[in-house]
Design goal:
alpha/beta; binds ligand LKJZXN5G; binds manganese (II) ion; PYR_CT; metal-binding
Length: about 350
């Protein structure tokens, strides 16, 4: 009999975690991780390029393996876990959604910038038609006031979303800001509320707990906290903490810990940690997926990645504007060179 759950965890190491390894997952790695997550009774496992379906590109980073192969492989080894995908309208298409539904993905998470929920209407509609559980994913939630977030969540609800997430893409939200957002959504939105945290300010766990206190029932976790920037809320730790709090996740804690230690840790070139650059993401409110792009261009131009990230934060650059990272860095390097010859 399935164990009872108070909170449903979506494991994102095979999607957000893909950022941490520059989208280099192999079928073998995905099979090992998905099988172990299924055995640990994790309800949802998200699989896709780090930037969502069809993200593999020069702009976002090329995947080593076609994500459709990864999704198919994950579906084939899961007996109880459902495979989820993430799609950003404009990157992923309706056709991509139809394809992954055909491969057996059961949940579609449609992600938009926090003020642009209107672009999700068709994709949410199609996911529902395809019989998928459908989640609205409002990214960069720190950039909008609470009232705006509520308005946008209501739009997603009206399109048919079964749940709406507050997504702290920059890992910039402070616990009281998460509290205010989840509380308002619980008051004004009729569907389940979720929270997706990033650990750039070391607040992913605290923020996830605050979200649960305020009534969120969907929480994202990532084994060994694999994710963009400093990563996400660490699943095995979250499961342990929730167990201590008497909140049921239905997940087998020891199996999660073993997966983290014996399968995931040996795959990593370096452990995921809060570095000075990822800390700046949270501090300056910058999209976590920008980290590797900013580091690469900083190295080429002999700059400090933190300066580029702070400038991107000031300019309020958002997901989908990855090309701006190079533009801003080159502009800064030019100004620096000009000031040296004056
Ligand atoms: C697909 C873009 C992005 O990485 C989604 C996400 O996980 C976030 O905004 O945090
Ligand atoms: Mn994320």
């Amino acid at each position: 009999m399935a164990k009872k759950r108070d909170v449903w965890i979506t494991e994102v190491a095979l999607r957000d975690g893909s950022h941490a390894i520059a989208h280099q997952y192999t079928v073998d790695q995905v099979v090992k991780i998905a099988k172990a997550l299924d055995e640990a009774n994790v309800p949802y496992i998200e699989v896709a390029h780090g930037d969502g379906l069809a993200g593999s590109s020069l702009q976002y980073g090329l995947s080593r393996t076609n994500e459709l192969e990864l999704i198919e492989a994950a579906v084939s080894v899961c007996k109880q876990s459902k495979i989820a995908v993430l799609l950003l309208p404009g990157i992923g298409t309706m056709k991509d959604l139809q394809q992954v539904a055909g491969l057996g993905a059961k949940m579609a998470r449609i992600a938009t910038h926090v003020t642009e929920a209107d672009v999700s209407a068709q994709h949410i509609g199609l996911a529902k038609e395809l019989g998928m559980e459908t989640v609205g994913f409002l990214m960069m939630a720190h950039m909008a006031p609470v009232e705006k977030l509520v308005e946008q969540a209501k739009l997603m609800e009206s399109y048919g979303a079964d749940a709406v997430y507050v997504v702290d893409s920059a890992g910039a939200l402070l616990p009281h800001e998460v509290r205010d957002r989840i509380r308002a959504l619980k008051q004004h939105v009729g569907v389940e509320i979720g929270f997706h945290g990033h650990n750039n300010l070391s607040l992913a766990m605290a923020n996830s707990l605050v979200a649960i206190e305020e009534g969120a029932t969907r929480i994202d976790g990532s084994v060994r906290c694999l994710g963009a920037g400093a990563g996400n809320t660490q699943t095995e730790v979250l499961v342990a903490v929730l167990d201590r709090l008497g909140v049921k996740t239905g997940i087998d804690l020891y199996k999660m810990m073993d997966l983290a230690e014996e399968i995931v840790a040996p795959m990593l070139p370096a452990p995921q940690e809060i570095t000075r650059d990822s800390l700046v993401l949270g501090y300056a409110g910058v999209y976590s997926s920008f980290l590797l792009h900013a580091r690469r261009i900083a190295e080429k131009l002999g700059m400090d990645a933190r300066d580029i990230l702070v400038e991107l934060g000031k300019r309020k650059v958002v997901g989908g504007q990855e090309d701006m990272i190079v533009d801003v860095a080159v502009e800064m390097a030019k100004k620096r060179a000009e000031s040296l010859v004056q």
